[in-house]
Write a sequence for this structure.
């Protein structure tokens, strides 16, 4: 599909709006993140959004309008409390959930009887929405699972060729998505923390609940909360502890792996030069961290680093939104700089057993970080059957590249585990090397599945999984 680029000027915004009215998709800037818009009243147009993003269809979309007066056309009832909130925070980075009217198609609401309404404050967004003359359903304009786009270049990177148009606006001023506030529950409830904080809302509403952010079981109330989000390609960890202990840990890792650290400027002086340092601004300015966060995560992807360390973030005000996004990027992997162990898995070629072990270990949420290497590694990818078998446990080996074991890796790892006795015997005796079975107090070894069919790999992965559970 040809993607037209529209400049931020009146005649271009008119052309872009025309595409929306014709049932096409257009990406537009907002103060939170860029949105991927389509006419919210046209079910076929809305379906194109899900196709372009690769988004699950049970995740509802927010409807964007230019003026509050239009809201009553699409929602059944606007409680007085919502009018007060609207008065104070609209236009702005806030979405309110109301009971919907039948004109909102199921494609927008994902069959819920509610709809999210937002009035953005970004000048270009408002001009564009006015030109559209129809409500515009829009999720963030990223490929599903990637960091949300906060710059025109991010939107182009993810969506060129997949949408009819992209409006070239400024970088998003706020940088994290809107707060999603459910006004249909007895007590207004924040389903997603965002640009307007719970504290700000409490000032006008009194009691406001914040729904648990990282619910693992049960259905979270904002359907979008249950999906993996914002995940950069490198393994991301929240690293807790003092600046000194975090710096020590990052230094140790960056000696043997490619590492990026998202840091506050105040901590820069502690950090090792060996890691790529990406600034989140001052530790006293949540608005800086919010503004930079998604760009920082995309930068990590660009650098191709394998491990990403992010700081612990407070749970107040705008920080809550930053914390929520980072915890999701880290898939809630939290480690303690002072006590976290570093693990090195070793096999022959680093294409089957040790990458499976690394992958499964790193999603097991232990206070540890694992990597893997081979005695004779060629730099190739993981074996397709290894990728498939590990995927059954949720581990992603698609980007794995086999890595030659080095002495540095052995020297800088706390726990060194081989798959077999003979691997172990080929390593210097003075190092504390154990087979993975020995480490958990079992007999036997993990034999090589290489050349076997998928069943052979499955049973190999199952064995490794069991051993890791016992670590
Ligand atoms: O700032 C933003 O909100 C951006 C810009 C483009 O406006 N949009 C955005 O949309 O972040 P999206 O689709 O990426 O996230 C919308 C979130 C999802 O978690 C979704 O499940 C939730 O809002 N949501 C939408 N409609 C809902 C509803 N009726 N009930 C509960 N949650 C809803
Ligand atoms: Mg999104």
């Amino acid at each position: 599909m040809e993607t037209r680029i529209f400049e931020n000027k009146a005649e271009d915004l008119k052309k872009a709006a025309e595409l929306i009215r014709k049932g096409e998709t257009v990406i537009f800037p907002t103060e939170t993140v860029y949105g991927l818009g389509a006419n919210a009243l046209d079910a076929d147009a809305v379906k194109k959004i899900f196709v372009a993003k690769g988004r699950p269809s049970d995740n509802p979309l927010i409807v964007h309008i230019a003026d509050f007066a239009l809201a009553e056309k699409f929602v059944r009832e606007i409680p007085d409390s919502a009018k007060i909130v609207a008065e104070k925070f609209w236009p702005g980075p806030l979405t309110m959930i109301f009971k919907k009217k039948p004109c909102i198609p199921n494609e927008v609401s994902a069959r819920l009887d509610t709809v999210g309404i937002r009035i953005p404050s970004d000048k270009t967004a408002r001009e564009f929405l006015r030109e559209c003359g129809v409500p515009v359903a829009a999720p963030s304009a990223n490929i599903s699972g990637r960091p949300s786009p906060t710059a025109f270049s991010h939107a182009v990177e993810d969506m060129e060729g997949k949408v009819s148009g992209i409006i070239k606006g400024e970088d998003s001023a706020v940088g994290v998505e809107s707060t999603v506030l459910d006004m249909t529950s007895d007590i207004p409830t924040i389903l997603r923390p965002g640009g307007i904080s719970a504290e700000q809302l409490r000032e006008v509403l009194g009691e406001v609940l914040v729904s648990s952010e990282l619910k693992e079981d049960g259905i979270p109330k904002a359907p979008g909360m249950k999906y993996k989000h914002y995940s950069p390609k490198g393994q991301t960890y929240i690293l807790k502890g003092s600046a000194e202990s975090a710096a020590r840990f990052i230094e140790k890792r960056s000696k043997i792996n490619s590492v990026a650290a998202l840091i506050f400027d105040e901590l820069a002086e502690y950090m090792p030069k060996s890691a790529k340092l990406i600034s989140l601004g001052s530790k006293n300015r949540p608005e800086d961290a919010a503004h930079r966060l998604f760009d920082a995560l995309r930068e990590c992807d660009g650098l191709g680093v394998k491990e990403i360390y992010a700081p612990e973030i407070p749970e107040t005000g705008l920080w809550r939104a930053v914390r929520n996004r980072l915890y999701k990027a880290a898939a809630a992997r939290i480690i303690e700089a002072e006590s976290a162990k570093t693990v090195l898995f070793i096999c022959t070629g680093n294409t089957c057993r040790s990458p499976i072990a690394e992958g499964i270990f790193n999603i097991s949420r232990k206070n540890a970080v694992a990597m893997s290497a081979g005695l004779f590694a060629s730099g190739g990818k993981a074996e397709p059957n290894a990728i498939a078998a590990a995927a059954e446990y949720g581990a992603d080996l698609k980007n794995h590249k086999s890595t030659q074991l080095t002495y540095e890796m052995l020297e800088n790892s706390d726990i060194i585990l081989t798959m077999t006795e003979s691997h172990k015997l080929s390593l210097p005796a003075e190092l504390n090397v154990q087979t993975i079975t020995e480490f958990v107090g079992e007999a036997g070894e993990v034999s090589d599945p290489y050349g076997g069919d998928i069943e052979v790999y499955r049973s190999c992965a199952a064995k490794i999984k069991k051993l890791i559970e016992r670590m």
